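Key result, reporting period 2: structure in, sequence out.
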């Protein structure tokens, strides 16, 4: 952003920088955008429609909500977008989801709007959120469930379910998050044995003889068998 007019950046409340197909949050005066996290064009448009003084670098979206003063209209930048791997993008979205859940819970505690509870069904690969009005029987529910082809992540599930319970838009990032391509300690893998039997195993080590290699498409070699990552929440290892 070196060639961007600094006055425009300073005057903006929120700044996104276009990187590839994503819009990376680089400034948030309101504290509701995770710095360094990728957002879709649809999310940025919806966000700008509800806020003011939102700046996109470079000015790639023709959208009047971004252009609240003459300085912003002059902003332009150049350069090649860095390559972001699917795994790195997934990691960023998971961190975005964690921060999103904590912010929504804190706001509801502060405003005393709803009492929030989250129920995780790991076997069912789903999360249910309940937003209950204090001193009332009124409650709103939201659920997120991973489809069989997806790797379940409890943090993304919490963010989706909670936003649905609160009647908030679910960002495209949460619904279209890339699948993991790197196995890590704490992941749960599904191993298909020669007999056809399927076993689910937590990854406790990446040493030779435990997991030898990982291949594109979530397929990893588990000594003499093949497996896929089915849960990368890694709650047990503090992730």
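The corresponding designed sequence is given below.
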């Amino acid at each position: 952003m070196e060639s961007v007019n600094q006055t425009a950046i300073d005057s903006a409340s929120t700044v996104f920088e276009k990187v590839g197909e994503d819009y990376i949050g680089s400034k948030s005066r309101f504290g509701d955008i995770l710095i360094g996290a990728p957002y879709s064009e649809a999310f940025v448009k919806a966000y700008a429609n509800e806020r003011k003084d939102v700046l996109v670098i470079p000015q790639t979206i023709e959208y009047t909500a971004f252009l609240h003063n003459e300085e912003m209209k002059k902003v332009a930048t150049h350069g090649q977008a860095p390559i972001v791997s699917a795994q790195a993008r997934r990691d960023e979205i998971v961190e975005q989801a964690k921060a999103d859940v904590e912010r929504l819970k804190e706001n509801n505690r502060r405003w005393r709007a709803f009492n929030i509870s989250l129920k995780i069904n790991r076997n069912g690969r789903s999360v249910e959120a309940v937003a209950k009005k204090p001193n009332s029987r009124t409650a709103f529910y939201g659920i997120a469930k991973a489809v069989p082809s997806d790797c379940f992540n409890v943090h993304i599930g919490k963010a989706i379910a909670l936003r649905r319970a609160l009647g908030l838009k679910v960002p495209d990032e949460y619904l279209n998050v890339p699948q993991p391509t790197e196995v890590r300690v704490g992941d749960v893998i599904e191993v298909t044995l020669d007999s056809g039997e399927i076993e689910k195993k937590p990854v406790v080590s990446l040493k030779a003889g435990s997991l030898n290699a990982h291949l594109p498409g979530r397929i990893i070699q588990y000594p003499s068998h093949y497996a896929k990552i089915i849960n990368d929440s890694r709650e047990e290892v503090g992730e």
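The mean pLDDT is 77. The radius of gyration is 21 Å. This case is discussed further under Risks and Mitigation.
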